[in-house]
Automatic annotation (TrEMBL):
Biological classification of the source: Bacteria, Pseudomonadati, Pseudomonadota, Alphaproteobacteria, Sphingomonadales
Molecular function, one GO term: hydrolase activity, acting on glycosyl bonds
UniProtKB keywords: Glycosidase, Hydrolase, Signal
Name the UniProt record assigns to this protein: Phosphodiester glycosidase family protein
Signal peptide: 1-16
Length: 294
């Protein structure tokens, strides 16, 4: 029932150029809203925001465990499939990965397809198992790490404290204690608008935000740059924030009974709605709310 209501609200939002759908509680400690904005250049931007109440005792975050069955660190899969396989309530794409080829427009010559082997760039830990070691020079975008253990924190670099059960190294690093983190000079030219996935934390560690911005879709959403993400996390109340893999990888899914629903509009090989197989995900586990009237 709630999913049908959410769909109606999103459809209504599409009729306006700048609209915010009120927060919708998805699970215990998990809310979601969609914002439609017009940026300074007059281009549309659709933002999906999941807010996590980290004070809820049964809410926890994790990372997709490694799968070396095909000889590399992971076996590629869609975010939707990962959510179902790991019995999570929310899933979003996480690490950069290799080998990778974006494919020709509307083609099927991309890599990886579902079931093909990949490894992630930078450190990753999933379900207490090291998936990928620290790799400083592999990808300059990888400049921060989300460490999940007794507390959640974003650190510069790729090293987490002892006791970390799950971790994702990615980037760029966006905010550190409320201050914008300067981009590495070699990445400045790559900081334009596009689909984005990012994660942020409040200074007191009581709130976290998963942000996905749709992009590369003229008339719907052209995407965000790093400066726009910094502004957004400051608006939300974030103190620390980092990007995950973006572009055609940006995908946000939630549990819908025994299946999954994608909340954003990913774009892979230029096809809106087409999901890209990725390596791993940030997973959120939260109690399912009782149905209305029960």
């Amino acid at each position: 029932m709630w999913l049908a209501a959410l769909a109606l609200a999103l459809a209504a939002a599409g009729q306006a150029a700048s609209t915010t759908v009120p927060d919708r509680q998805l699970f215990d400690g998990v809310t979601y809203r969609e914002e439609r904005r017009t940026d300074a250049a007059g281009e549309p931007m659709v933002i999906h925001i999941v807010t996590l109440d980290l004070t809820r005792p049964r809410l926890r975050m994790g990372v997709t465990p490694p799968d070396r069955s095909r000889g590399m660190e992971y076996v590629a899969h869609t975010v939707r499939d990962a959510l179902v396989a790991n019995h999570a309530q929310v899933a979003v794409n996480a690490s950069y990965f290799l080998p990778f080829f974006g494919g020709t427009p509307k083609g099927s010559d991309y890599y990886p397809h579902t079931g093909e082997p990949v490894s992630v760039s930078g450190a990753a830990i999933g379900a207490g198992r090291v998936a990928s070691p620290v790799e400083i020079d592999q990808d300059l975008r990888v400049s921060a790490i989300l460490c999940l253990g007794r507390r959640s924190e974003i650190r510069a670099g790729q090293r987490c404290p002892a006791g970390t059960r799950d971790a994702i190294a990615a980037g760029p690093h966006l905010l550190h204690h409320g201050h914008a983190v300067p981009l590495h000079r070699s990445l400045a030219a790559e900081g334009g608008k596009g689909p984005r996935t990012a994660f942020g934390l409040s200074a007191n560690g009581r709130r976290a935000w998963i942000v996905v911005v749709d992009g590369r879709q003229k008339g719907y959403s052209m995407g965000a740059d790093n400066a726009a993400l910094v502004t957004l996390f400051r608006e939300l109340g974030g103190s620390d924030a980092m990007s995950f893999d973006g572009g055609g990888s940006s995908t946000l899914a939630i549990a819908d009974g025994k299946s999954a629903t994608v909340l954003n509009r990913p774009i892979h090989t230029g096809i809106p709605g087409r999901e890209r197989p990725v390596a791993n995900e940030l997973l959120v586990y939260a109690p399912v709310l009782l149905a209305e009237g029960r």
